[in-house]
Specification:
By secondary structure, this protein is α+β, with helices and mostly antiparallel strands. Helices cover 46% and strands 12% of the residues. It has one domain (55-196). Strand 1 and strand 2 form a beta hairpin.
């Protein structure tokens, strides 16, 4: 009769049969979840950067549109007739003359059809209408961002050089700790500057 040692069992005797233990499965799940959290963080950061870049692109396009309107109305802008600095907050223009002129500017267009070729419009009326139209469009593109535009055309320079500076409030910054350390109050109110020679 053959006696078996006390600590001998069938599982240790087979030796070749193996599997994952519960601890190994838990470690694999933890590593996988950390990787998925990292991917989610990268997606959130990419989404925030895309939103910020989109807003900045829209502001750049709008500023270029205002520069085109300034080029088209050289009778007002190139002669240095604009008050400097001219500040547009929302849809309100800081200059009282341009603010009141814009309300009647559509009357000088052909039949009210907004055809700017009508020679009945003065350069100041065209400038006022362009500024109000542009300010309303910018406010509609950036709702809740409180855009402020400053147009500076110093008359001492020849030829006349103007600066369009648009400042607005951003909502998406500092998604990681490195960006949070570099975030200041100016980060939330970026400024886009465009130099124009009307």
């Amino acid at each position: 009769m053959q006696l078996m040692p006390r600590n001998y069992s069938r599982s240790t005797a087979s030796g070749g049969v193996g599997g994952f233990t519960l601890i190994e499965v838990l470690v694999a799940l933890i590593i996988t979840s950390i990787g998925l959290l990292g991917i989610a963080k990268m997606e959130a950061l990419a989404f925030a950067n895309t939103g910020s870049a989109s807003t900045r692109s829209l502001v750049a396009i709008q500023a270029s549109g205002l520069a085109s309107a300034m080029h088209a109305n050289r009778g007002y802008w190139a002669l240095g007739l604009a008050p400097t600095p001219l500040i547009i907050t929302g849809a309100a223009i800081s200059d009282g003359t341009l603010n009141t002129t814009a309300t009647g500017a559509t009357d000088c267009y052909l039949g009210g059809a907004l055809a700017p070729a009508n020679i009945g419009c003065t350069p100041a009326q065209l400038a006022a209408f362009d500024l109000h139209t542009w300010a309303n469009a910018l406010s509609a593109l950036l709702p809740g961002s409180n855009p402020v535009t400053t147009i500076t055309c110093p008359t001492a320079s020849a030829p006349l050089n103007c600066t369009i500076a648009v400042t607005w409030n951003e909502k998406t910054v500092s998604l990681n700790s490195q960006a949070a350390t570099n975030t200041t109050t100016a980060t939330f109110a970026p400024t886009y500057i465009l130099y124009v020679e009307p």
